[in-house]
Design a protein that fits this description.
heterotrimer; A mainly alpha; B mainly alpha; C mainly alpha; A: mainly alpha; 76% helix; 0% strand; C: mainly alpha; elongated
Chain lengths: 98, 160, 113
């Protein structure tokens, strides 16, 4: 069982490397945010797997918190790139928000 | 009121599952914090059919297996396109998908189902149509076939 | 010694890792932002579902499995939302998607670079 967890952890770490390469390569800011968001999803999976690998399933709580933080972080970064500030609600072309 | 009770029960379930401490004192803190959240949500005016869509629950068991099956199929398809040797077998396309849902909630569910399925991403929802980006022509034609649209309309209670 | 449920959980976790890797490859290989969202979608959906389902099978019927189910639910609801928000922000900013089959040349250039 430990071997399976270790293999999955290694696969996710490799994939995080690929994602990081995309976030450095860009080319647009949206590519970078997408890569960081995807990196966050993999971090959630990594935390859960490492918890089982180390025999400490309490790590699941951290994974839960990280999943929510990752979502809010992505939305905040997206909103900042779109409006230029975090409180702005006015849209650039019509009445719709989001 | 029905929706407030449902929201309270849901929050309480989440609290109990995450807490792990079941003494009277700690649990009463949980009850108080859940009541506080329900009160705040009511003040915000989001405790209604749209915010707590309990009326979808009876029909959800029919929709979930279908969307799960679609997501798995789409995953395999997109994986094949990504791993294809030589040139990538993709032909990205932007198109408008018509919707037949009556409520905003239904359209949100439809747009989220489109985005959840790899190969199609909903870009914007305006009025009764959704701008969709698809990774290949076949994927786009599949969506335009309207199967998912019909299923979501049935989920929200309309259609056949 | 390993029961059928354990074996099923191994299969789920390992195939989930494969899909996570495919998503990572797609993120590097696909030619523009909008197509890369689809690659990220693979990691977010089938990859994470299989890994979390595998962990749930390993865990059995306990509080930990309920937490994993909650994790699954959060990922299920937040990942399409953030993909959509990103796509819409990029679209309204005027980032034009590449379209049609004429991507080959550009993709080869990307491969060399």
């Amino acid at each position: 069982m430990t071997g399976v967890f270790a293999a999955a952890t290694a696969a996710i770490v490799v994939c995080m490397g690929l994602t990081l390469a995309r976030s450095i390569a860009g080319p647009t800011v949206f590519d970078r945010i997408l890569a960081v968001n995807s990196f966050g999803t993999k971090t959630v999976l990594l935390i859960a797997l490492v918890g089982y690998l180390a025999g400490r399933p309490d790590f699941l709580d951290l994974a839960l918190v990280y999943a929510l933080m990752n979502f809010i972080g992505t939305i905040a970064a997206m909103k900042f790139t779109r409006f230029g500030d975090l409180a702005g609600m006015e849209d650039d072309d019509s009445g719709e928000v989001f | 009121m029905k929706h407030a009770v449902a929201l309270f029960l849901l929050l309480m379930a989440v609290w109990l599952l995450n807490s792990g401490h079941y003494t009277v004192l700690i649990t009463s803190f949980g009850v108080v914090s859940c009541l506080l959240v329900v009160w705040l949500a009511r003040r915000m005016g989001i405790v209604d059919e749209e915010g707590v869509p309990i009326h979808l629950l009876p029909r959800l068991p029919m929709y979930l297996p279908w969307i799960a099956k679609e997501v798995v199929k789409a995953n395999l398809d997109v994986s094949r396109r990504i791993l294809g040797l030589g040139r990538l077998n993709i032909s990205p396309r932007l198109f408008e998908a018509p919707t037949t849902q009556r409520t905003d909630l239904g359209r949100v569910l439809y747009a989220n189902s489109i985005t959840l399925t790899p190969g199609t991403v909903s870009i914007r929802v305006h009025g009764a149509s959704i701008t969709v980006h698809a990774i290949a022509d076949e994927v786009a034609d599949d969506l335009l076939g309207g199967e998912m649209d019909r299923r979501v309309t049935r989920l929200e209670g309309g259609g056949r | 010694m390993a029961g059928p449920i354990e074996v099923l959980s191994w299969v789920c976790i390992l195939s989930g890792s494969v899909f996570v890797i495919i998503g990572g490859i797609g993120l590097l290989r696909l030619p523009d932002f909008y197509t890369r969202i689809h690659a990220a979608g693979i990691t977010d959906t089938l990859g994470s579902w299989l890994i979390l389902a595998g962990l749930m099978l390993h865990e059995g019927f306990t509080l930990g499995a309920a937490k994993l189910a909650m994790l699954l639910f959060f990922l299920l609801t937040t990942s399409p939302l953030s993909s959509h928000a990103l796509a819409k922000a990029a679209f309204l900013r005027g980032l034009d998607p590449l379209q049609g089959r004429d991507l080959v040349d550009r993709h080869e250039v990307d491969d060399i670079a």
